[in-house]
Amino acid sequence: MAQSTAAPIAFGTDSAAPSSTPIATAQDGFSLHTHTAGELRTADVGTEVTLTGWVWRRRDHGGLIFCDLRDRSGVTQLTFDPEHSGGEAFRLAETMRPEWVIKVTGTVRERPEDMCNPKLPTGEVEVLVSSAEVLGRSQTPPFPIEDDIDTAEDTRLKYRYLDLRRPVMFQNLKVRNDFVFGARCALHDLGFVEVETPALGKSTPEGARDFIVPSRLSPGEFYALPQSPQLLKQLLMVAGVERYYSLAKCFRDEDLRADRQPEFTQIDLEMSFVTADDVMGAVEVMLARAFEAVGIEFPAPLRRIPYWEAMDRWGSDKPDTRFGMELVDVTDIFKGSGFKVFASAANAEGGCVKCLNAKGAGTWPRAQIDKLADVAKAFGAKGLAWIAFREDGSVNSPIVKFFSEAEMAALRERAGVEPGDLVMFAAADRLSACEILGGMRTHMADAMGIAREGHDFLWVVDFPLLKYDEHGKRYAANHHPFTQPFEDEVDLIDTDPLAVGSWTYDFVMDGHEAGGGGLRIHDPELQLRVLQRMGISEEVAREQFGFLLEALTYGAPPMGGFALGVDRVAMLCRGADSIRDVMAFPKTASGADVMLGAPAEVAPRQLADVGIRIDR
Questions:
Q1: Average pLDDT over residues 267-289
Q2: Which fold has domain 168-303+503-522+557-604?
């Protein structure tokens, strides 16, 4: 006998996110096998078993042939001995190649102690094969069916059905499954009713671009795929469902990035007769059970950080608080500064000067520090003011000559400056200064290799109702147009709209917005008023949202809800680099499906059926 050379794959017990439910266990009577390849242990020694799966690795030792058989639950070593297996089974083993699908019957036996493989759960046993059958042959795969392969993502996506055979990829799907199942069980126990909502709806201005679908029966008119079930779940509350949830497919035609896809999945829920505390409490119960199902501790109740505190301290409404480097307000220090950029911002209405101390980066070469200006511009800055405090006590900076000794002393004290530190500044309005330094904070943490250990969960609450869209020159919703403003600030909608707060809450995980929600407007007059403040005329509002405005006139209850990004949470649970790694069939960064060849042209007849002509 020979010890398996299989790589250390912890099938079903992945250390990054252990599963509380088995991938596959004993005989269920509904398959060609009696056991799975990952469940055999020393307790099964002497048992005759039938296994099915893929040939992972094959080793010919002359008189003996060893094969690692892999299925979704794990791997078991097979031994083909001509004295036991018979001529036919042994000859088949001589011809087998990687990724062939086989079925074997044999007896479980214990491996000698010096030939056990402690890296595998099945490493103390093997199956001595008595008969074998080929169920399917395979070409040579375009890449190894192994974890940690160095293969271009487009190749992996083109052959996604092979990529998903890799143990880590199946574990990604399994953890996602367990998380969703835990959430579903919790919601069921809390009295929620799962209701499906349609995928063909009406295009409404909800923030992102819609995917539109032409209608053959109504030429020149279009459906839209839902960006979320937001309006429909509000109508379900009007309908008296009271507690709704769904595993909702959402579609948004927007630019892609590592944690964004054109189609994604949410756990969507809505509740009637509730406060914001009620909704967050129910969500925490759901999350606690879902994270428990994947072996992650969830410290409910979570911290609640007001929006402006999050912005002022971390420069983000989705802060990662696993490391420090918090923003520092130094506006008062530079009100009388000789550096006009700072003095102007410090004395302007709504202006401020903030700084960020990147400890240790003050030792960087000047050329490397200068490149940070381009990084800051990506976050909205016109440039980047900085001071490098060298370890020898000297100071390097193009702006320090404008500062008085008192200003420098006050800066050192407030920002906790030590030799070797790099202090970066933003002088602008409060929001812009926070966003610029918040972006720099994340960039510097990555550039300096600052560790983020464990998981970080929190709520960011009380977002402003509106923000000003410089591009569109109008007010826009911070969450969405149906969010309930604070009752005592409603009168400010017309006079000071940016000062209006709202009953909103975002669930933040590891510096990512993993979910969000809020209370909804259930007064039709207030809803119309908010829409009008966003530059939507009453005529357009009734054209776009007339069904909602009318529904709210028929006794709408107070309501609130929440939506959780399943794909993003699964990515964070698994420590994956991209959301694509936890989706079965994702699109590329350009929105293409290279496996199916989509998007693609359609036949002229199909276009004619829906009254569309392509002008090239």
A1: 98
A2: BirA Bifunctional Protein; domain 2 (3.30.930)
